[in-house]
């Protein structure tokens, strides 16, 4: 049960809604947002900003594992740019809204009328700040939407009937550690990350989007890459402490929804921390091949029975479980 409780908070959504956004200088520049109640809101577009947890095909094919086998084996049956065996949270949220999953930004010029469902600006591996992977960070992604607004691709009315999804899954902290960041300096860096998130949320809100869903940081100590040392049996409590601090700050930015989202009925996985796809050596990952094209990874027989697809990302079944846990809250908010 404790494992299920940890996993269900992998993606806990906060709602940012309302007509007013104001700053609170007493809290190191963090922003607070008023929560207002809306009735009969019928969203028609979804705009997505973030990283691999919501990316549906933006990262370059030449660089991203999401375009290699066995990614996409469950849906659509071949690699399609999603960091999973199938659908991700973006797809499930779009389905809930009754629209098609928004087109990845890199395909916008050939999208035609597909742009009417919105656009996905998320790039795998990115963060609130630059993370060293040379892909657009969250501020740049938001700038892409502003450019489309300036070009009259989307109108004020379009934005008012839209929803924004903002995902952050810890790439900033991975980059911080990789660049030699110290444990002592981590709390200050976490504050910087959340402060910048607050600025970004205000920009999105001021564009005219009144409904913004923001993911809290998942328990990094529960990712398979952290639990491998315990044979995928226990989460790393030390890593999760930093996550708690990040999410505590985030709660001061947005109004937390007090709903029962930790419904474990949809999370009955026999080994919730065990990934389906993993490398056969410490130097290999899911999707790795040798110089002859031979697979250097293994894939479980039933991806639908696992929560995690690889060492970092949920499977389609995992994302579906998260969505089912969140659906009652989404229904209450939007309908």
Automatic annotation (TrEMBL):
GO terms for biological process: lipid catabolic process. It holds the Pfam family Lipase_GDSL. Keywords: Hydrolase, Lipid degradation, Lipid metabolism, Signal. InterPro entries: GDSL, SGNH_hydro_sf. GO terms for molecular function: hydrolase activity, acting on ester bonds. Residues 1-18 form the signal peptide. It comes from the Eukaryota. Belongs to the 'GDSL' lipolytic enzyme family. This is Lipase, GDSL. It comes from Cynara cardunculus var. scolymus (Globe artichoke). The lineage of its organism: Eukaryota, Viridiplantae, Streptophyta, Embryophyta, Tracheophyta.
